[in-house]
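Team,

Forwarding the record for the chain on the shared tracking sheet. I've put the sequence and predicted structure together so nobody has to dig through attachments.
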Amino acid sequence: MFVKLAIPPGVYRNATPYSAGPRWYDVNLVRWIDGALLPIGGWQKFSVAPVVGTCRGLFAWKDNSADAWLTVGTSDRLYVHEGGTLTDITPVGFVPGQTSAQPGRGFGTGQFGRGLYGTPRLTGSGLVLDAATWSFDTWGEYLVACSTSDGKLYEWRLITANPAQVIANAPTQNRGVFVSEQRHLVAIGADGDGRKVQWSHSENNTLWAPDATNQAGDFLLNSTGLLRCAVKTRGETLLLTSNDAHTMRYIGYPLVFSFERVGTNCGVAGPNAAANVEGGVVWMGPDARFYAYDGALRNIPCEVESWVDTEFKKLGQSEVYAGTLAEKGEIWWFFPTAAVTKYVIFNYRSNTWSIGELDRLAWIDRGAWKYPVGVSSAGDLFQHETGLTDSGETRVGQIYAESGALELGNGDLTADVLQVLPDEKTRGDVSILFKAAFTPNGNEFVYGPYTVRPDGYTDTRASGRQLKLRIAPVTDSDWQVGTFRAEVRQSGGR
């Protein structure tokens, strides 16, 4: 008899492979479009030399002449890229920061009066030294920037021979910066106060002292957390702390802005862990849960939450980086694990999830820049969704999709898979492999790989009560896989 192997799109990883059943369970570098499985686009390196330091900030914009600029913020430097040239515009006196999050240790950590005087404290104090991150926006056509390690507000006026300059009269020891729709320059975590929001007069980013003749001002959030990021969305700005969420809306003179807490126990993992998508904000929390706000706050059910929670190196919350790929309806989160950087993708149009491993520390979608851009831990810049390779190198061996346990037999009977028939959506070169077992925790027997034949008939030989199906490319081609059918013969139990 023929059996359909109709595995629905998306990954389910909140159970064992047996409990996951006919769902995709373990994948890398794949996505689903209209129900079909295919590889994510390739990437090409475009930086002549790597940037110095660890990248934790990307931003792209166009100036008044429609020239596209890309800025790269690292733990040590600030760069701009335009016309094929990467230029260092690091401000004079800039204070570098942590390349990655580290546990607090040394003198001055921990509670006062605990431990012996003169003895440096080790891990366990609860203090975390965050990785240095950047926030960016534009003041007209000029770039404004702030690094968490340095805390100053900078402006850069498109002259590559000049470094970015400190904005006069602006607060210091800030955690981030953005520009309101009314052209106020806004600092979050201003003056070293993790709950303070401070803004300049409209149209004047050097006027910060409030009086009766201007709209400069500040506000102290009533929050149980510390400000981590601000995301502009439709008609308001969402302020996310380590524990809750607040909105900031322009209301005009004399108060200028109103503030409202819209959620608790919904903090953001780090300064770059939130993204604006189609009129709403989506973010990853420090608890490896996912949240969305589009006028109302909600938790996003995640079918790979257990995997993220297990893999996520919680110390590295400040290293989480969210990026969008709007044309595919995807949000990517890159997050640290004990050894490598992994990612989780949420497709908000199909409500599906995917997972994998990719060495990227920062990401920005196409828009002002022609392609999505990602930066590796080595400091190399890559344009994504172009071609099918890794800068000309094959990705065969990295791309795969493996299902949970498929029970193709009836009850205790063994299923013998004799032949596989792919549907018409399969094109290019892919192979299939079966991992068969007779009990959920029993030994697995590997059958294959078998290269899918273009005539639609692929002979196989696999036998077991539970079988996992694994699909992988054999060439760097634009393959696509829909529903399979398998010829199955049932035999006695074992």
